[in-house]
Structures are given as structure tokens and as C-alpha cells.
Design brief:
Blueprint: H1 2-9, H2 16-21, H3 27-46, H4 50-60, H5 63-66, H6 71-94, E1 111-122, E2 128-138, E3 142-153, E4 156-163, E5 168-169, E6 173-177, E7 180-185, E8 187-188, E9 199-204, E10 207-210, H7 220-223, E11 228-229, E12 235-237, E13 242-246, E14 248-249, E15 261-269, E16 272-281
Antiparallel strand pairs: 1-2, 2-3, 3-4, 5-8, 6-7, 7-9, 9-10, 11-14, 12-13, 13-15, 15-16
Length: about 290
């Protein structure tokens, strides 16, 4: 059961050529994928988080995971992904491309929105970032939170990044790292899954480059003994480049992991994080 949940969580739309080659592919599934393809192109062109969306597409098109799903499950996954892409494009249109100030009023797509926190980050080279943490709702997702970070360029503020995927956010902060200056913001999604919504950017010259934080988790099963898995979010420490997580046994309920905890050592590899080592906390280390 644990492995089935993990596969479903990592699976979605495949390459159209894969669908065309599969005997099991139905016309409905192929049509749903074709309808989604223009949305992918628009998101990858417009999003300020291209590294994350590119990694999501690669993960969702993984042939091995896709092959485990029935046509009905495939249609459901495609419908979910299509809606998520449409939301991302709607959010992009709602966030202003420039503004002269970021004050007490909300900017962005949330309805019934109120600003819960805001602040300014400054670097030694005169860099200035302004951020805003909001809470409101959308008809599609219900109550949610938004984090927006704008960078000052002369008299204007331009969006550096934003996300409405997290319910709760910690204040963004600048982190000195061996690979350069980082902008980090810890966030979690709504619901009992405590899923990650964290953001990480790396300073490269005068520009900020996003570091995607999702694909490294695909390596976790190779580092865990059989019967152990990770079903909820992890707690990042970007200053130390680690992630702490609880471990579930196959028989555990979603609420109550009994497999202990582990600490992942991570490193920056271009525009992504990679898993270097997984260590058990408080118990004997993992075999091998």
C-alpha cells in the first residue's frame, strides 16, 4: 500500500509519443494530454519558477510510473494536472509585472485577502527585496496563503517569485552559503499531509535563479530499507542544507509514523538540490 501511494503521488501526464505507442492508451487519455500540452508551454514560458515546473513535467511524464495506472486513473491525473496548470497561469496574470510600492493591501489573485506579514531584505550591494505574506481564498482551492517577493529596480518593484501553494509561510531570509547568497522561504501546504511549499533561490551575478526542491525526493526510496517511506513534508534547514523527515512503516496510519526520523544531507547542483546521504536519527543507521 505504501508503495502504491508513493507511485500515485509521483505520477501524471506522459509524453504524447508514449501514449501513441501504448496499446492500452485510450482516445480519451490521448485527447486529454493533447489539450494539456499548450498549457505546459504557456506555464514554462510565463512562470517565475521554471525550474520547478520543468522538474514537475519530467517527473509526471515518467514512463515507469505511468505504466502502472489504469486508463481511468490516467484521466483523473490529467484532469488534476490540467487544473493546476490553469491556476498557475491565472495567478501569473493576477500578479503585477511592476509596482512602485508593496504596502498593506494585497496584490495577486486571492479573494477576501488580508496581509498577515511583510518586510524588507537588503544586501551589501544595495539589493533590496520586499515581501508579503497573504491569506485568502480561491473558489478552486479554498483558503490558502500566498508569498510574494519583489525586487527593487530603480523606483519600481518587479516580482522575483511568488507562490500560492502554501497555507502557512515563514518570513523569507537571506542565507550565506558556500555556493553564494541564497533567498529561502519555508512554507507548508494546507491539510494533514503537511506538504512542502518551500522556495529557494540562488544569487548568480545580479540575478536570482530558482532552485527546485522536489526532484531530490525521488531518490529517497533507493536510500530507505524496504517497508519504510516518507508520506508527509520535510523540514528544511537551508543554512545547513539538510531536510529532516519522519518515516512510515507499511502498516502505519497516515497520522502516526513509527519508523523513526531521518536527516537528508543535500547539496546544490545547478538549479536543483540533490540527495547526498540519508542518516537515521536516534537509531542505528540504515544498512549499506
Amino acid at each position: 500500500m505504501l508503495r502504491t501511494v508513493r507511485r500515485l503521488a509521483m505520477t501524471a501526464a506522459p509524453l504524447l509519443c508514449l501514449l501513441a505507442a501504448e496499446a492500452r492508451a485510450t482516445p480519451e487519455v490521448a485527447a486529454a494530454y493533447r489539450a494539456m500540452e499548450p498549457l505546459w508551454r504557456q506555464v514554462l514560458a510565463a512562470s517565475l519558477r521554471r525550474a520547478t515546473w520543468s522538474a514537475r513535467r519530467a517527473e509526471l511524464e515518467d514512463e515507469a510510473h505511468w505504466a502502472t495506472l489504469s486508463p481511468g486513473d490516467r484521466l483523473a491525473v490529467l484532469a488534476t494536472e490540467t487544473e493546476r496548470l490553469r491556476r498557475e497561469l491565472a495567478h501569473r496574470r493576477a500578479v503585477p509585472s511592476r509596482t512602485e510600492r508593496l504596502g498593506e493591501g494585497c496584490v495577486g489573485p486571492l479573494r477576501g485577502c488580508r496581509v498577515l506579514a511583510g518586510g524588507v531584505l537588503r544586501g551589501e550591494d544595495g539589493m533590496e527585496l520586499r515581501w508579503q505574506f497573504q491569506r485568502g481564498f480561491t473558489p478552486e482551492t479554498g483558503t490558502t496563503g500566498g508569498l510574494l517577493v519583489f525586487e527593487r529596480r530603480g523606483r519600481e518593484l518587479h516580482p522575483l517569485t511568488w507562490s500560492f501553494e502554501g497555507y502557512d509561510w515563514q518570513a523569507p531570509r537571506l542565507v550565506e552559503h558556500d555556493d553564494g547568497l541564497l533567498l529561502a522561504a519555508n512554507g507548508f501546504r494546507a491539510g494533514s499531509g503537511h506538504g512542502n511549499a518551500d522556495l529557494l533561490y540562488r544569487r548568480s551575478g545580479d540575478a536570482w535563479r530558482e532552485v527546485e526542491l522536489e526532484s531530490w525526493k525521488l531518490a529517497l526510496p533507493r536510500h530507505l530499507p524496504a517497508g519504510l517511506g516518507v508520506l508527509k513534508g520535510v523540514d528544511y534547514d537551508f543554512a545547513r542544507m539538510t531536510a529532516r523527515m519522519s518515516l512510515w512503516r507499511d502498516a502505519d496510519g497516515h497520522c502516526c509514523p513509527t519508523g523513526g526520523q531521518a536527516l537528508a544531507d543535500l547539496r546544490l547542483d545547478g538549479d536543483r538540490l540533490v540527495l547526498v546521504r540519508l542518516r537515521r536519527i536516534g537509531l542505528d543507521d540504515f544498512p549499506g
